[in-house]
Amino acid sequence: MALQRLQIEGEWFTDGSGHARILRGVNLGGDCKMPFTPNGHTNLPTDFADHRTVSFIGRPFPLAEAGEHFARLKAWGFNCLRLLTTWEAVEHAGPGQYDEAYLDYFAKLCSMADDYGMYVFVDFHQDVWSRMTGGDGAPGWCFEAVGLDYTKFRAAGAAHVMQYKYDFARGGRQEENYGTMTWSQNYRYPANAFMWTFFFAGKTFCPDFMIDGRNVQDYLQDHYIGAMEAVARRIKHLPNVIGFDSLNEPGSGYVGHPVSAQASDEGAGKLKHRRPGLDWSVLDGLAVARGIPRDIERLKLDWEVKRVVPSGTERVNPDGVSIWLDGAKCPFEQAGCYRLKDGKIEVLNEDFFRSVNGKPVRMEVDFMGPFFQRVAVALRAIEPDWLLFAELDPGEGFAHGFPKDTPRGTVNASHWYDIVTLGTKTFGFPTWLNPYNGRTLEGADAIEELYTKQLGFIKETAKTLNDGQGAPTLIGEFGIPYDLHDAAAYKAWAAGDHSDAPWEKHVIALDLMYCAMDKLLISSTHWNYTASNRNDQAVGDGWNQEDLSIYSVDQRTDSNDINSGGRALAGFVRPYARSIAGRPLKVKFKRETGLFRFVYEASSDAESEIFVPALQYPNGFEIEVEGGTVVRDDSNQSIRVRADGIGKVGVAITRL
Length: 656
Prior knowledge:
Elements: E1 7-9, E2 12-14, E3 20-21, E4 24-28, H1 63-75, E5 80-85, H2 87-91, H3 100-115, E6 119-124, H4 141-146, H5 153-156, H6 162-165, H7 190-205, E7 210-211, E8 214-215, H8 216-235, E9 241-245, E10 277-278, H9 282-289, E11 294-302, E12 307-316, H10 331-334, E13 338-341, E14 344-347, E15 355-356, E16 359-360, H11 363-380, E17 387-390, E18 410-412, H12 419-424, E19 432-433, E20 440-441, H13 443-460, E21 474-475, H14 484-494, H15 504-520, E22 523-529, E23 576-580, E24 582-590, E25 595-602, E26 607-611, E27 621-626, E28 628-633, E29 638-643, E30 647-655
Helix pairs in contact: 1-3, 3-8, 7-8, 8-11, 13-15
């Protein structure tokens, strides 16, 4: 199809004709975090010993199956892919050893996406650093390089890893062993926090920590960006590839934290809101890593009082296991943060991670801005027109926004989730809880208003990008768990109910999210489409009992039906303006009635394109255009609108 490469103009994506483009995409796919060979799904046991020989060829699906999946995504109206890969997928064998066969595979996927009208931006994905620390992303040899022994993380309690805590013999969902979303707590555990601190701020906090003649920060970033460059060189010729994500949901490590105060200690400057899980201090992490047992307070969410409260203490690393390799020294001790004396740990500099030579450090300004610059310079040396899809630490970055030295050509690719629905796996009326003030919301309109407010705040952060000219906002991730209410829809499906009824709450939740994004005229990539997804609470997307895939192979019952396998399709297969010969002004879709309204300011009499899915209009539709004419293209589920001239054009589509 040879799509035109996109650029940006203010808050809009634009193509070579100057048309504004709204991107409605999907993350492909959730299981790309895990090796394909051997199957790395987290409900399967592993000790990670084979981390140098794994293969990610086949994630998100084998090439022989790609046509089926791309055709389905096209039929559902998606025109963009946030295509996942990982640093580990490219460089798992060792430093500088790239998996050439995997690079061939990935490049072919990007090329095939163009055949189906899909723009691609590459997401070098990570969650809580790596598979060995409870998530995915970095290759295992990084730990050896910095002197950490990942085989000791479990015994020391230095990471919270499903494969270490899950009872494989029992199977099924195990909230008591590995609770919903508890993987995210790993950002506070020492194995994770050490790596993020090294990666972003090694030169600041341990300037003498050298690996192969380079500071640890340069060593890790050089290899990460080198893996990105290896991918970039394979796909630089493809016009449908529009750029790269900087790094999915990066952590800040210990940057900005006092050493001995708890993260939730208000006296420490309210560095973090209280969050469920162990309330680690930096000192706790430093001590546990050295093999010193610590009693750490555990916090839990009390729904009756609507806040996080203490729930006792937990002794961490009671056996005194050090996670440092024999002969390795803690670089933070060497740099003067603390010392060990008579078997006890003593703080030498409480502000070690907060200031340098009396000057406070700021994560976004001092570390994220320079990192964005490094990534952009490296990738644009290969293809100058690529966009940077930038992300900050999702836990703390929004408090300060994007740094001023974020490079031009940047897209605000921040993430957004309804954290109540995500964390509780429930959704309903009228007692939906607003997590920000503890109040309940009455009805769908109130929830949509809250979603619009939250997303609007994210959109606002893009105004400072590109030297104050603003930038498009593309919500890089959003979505819902499909195993809502203890997987009630799966149970209904297994019992033979293949109607739309079990998916009603899913549809409503998604509809409200998309309505909010329509109102704000922003782009998005839905999390996610996982070809291997199962209607099994232990498996789901194949990673940490998450299950947000809009498709499941267990629901694919008719190979002749492109929609077969889709979940709650009415919530996300919806009309939208794909290409606008001018600038959008207003979008509104009423799912219950099928009424779609679109208003834009035409800049010429060139055609604009609107996706009109047959799924929402099974008996057809009528069109009214004010200020233009229309041509139907039912075979491609679209209409083309041509303005009478420069000025406002209104389009209304009505379900028959």
